[in-house]
Amino acid sequence: IALLESCQALSTYQCPRTGSTLLHSAAMGVDLKSVRRLIQLNANPNACETTLSGRTPLMYAVQHYAPLGIIKELLNAGAKANFCLNKRSIINYASRGAEGNLPVLEALLDSLGVSKATKAVNYLLSDTEPYKTALDFAQNPQVRKLLIEHGALSGADYVANLRNEIKLSRVG
After folding, report:
1. Keyword GTP-binding, does the record have it (predicted)?
2. Superfamily of domain covering 1-80
3. What contacts 8, CB < 8 A, 6 or more positions away?
4. How confident is residue 172, by pLDDT bands cut at 50, 70 and 90?
5. Is the dihedral of CA 82, 124, 55, 19 positive or negative?
């Protein structure tokens, strides 16, 4: 932190090769104080890597199981919980697997509000069949329940609904 204090330019520096920032690195750790200080020094909570993955600091934090305090700090600084890129979704990172991360998923969905949360939980994570959403990757019953409460559908059901809407709009 002392180094950050002496050189504010470090807080906004992006690696020319990857586009990652110090906030990307800090978000993966457990040091809330460093994350908070970088944000105070104008680090961008939505900075995207320039590599194919295009991850943001919040994606890093969720993917690497950072403490909930770091997740909330990034959200309070304006990090976009509904950010999706290259078939990757922050909601999916928090939902996937046998455990999922229920407290983080709750914080992400709460930060979005109802309509944005419904759209975020139904982001298609594939362009071809079988279509998948976060619900398809979630195995924890509590995580699945929370996703469904926010309007999540399986990828197949979501695409079927879209196709029905298109048919109805052609008839009407």
Report:
1. no
2. Ankyrin repeat-containing domain (1.25.40.20)
3. 41, 42
4. low
5. negative
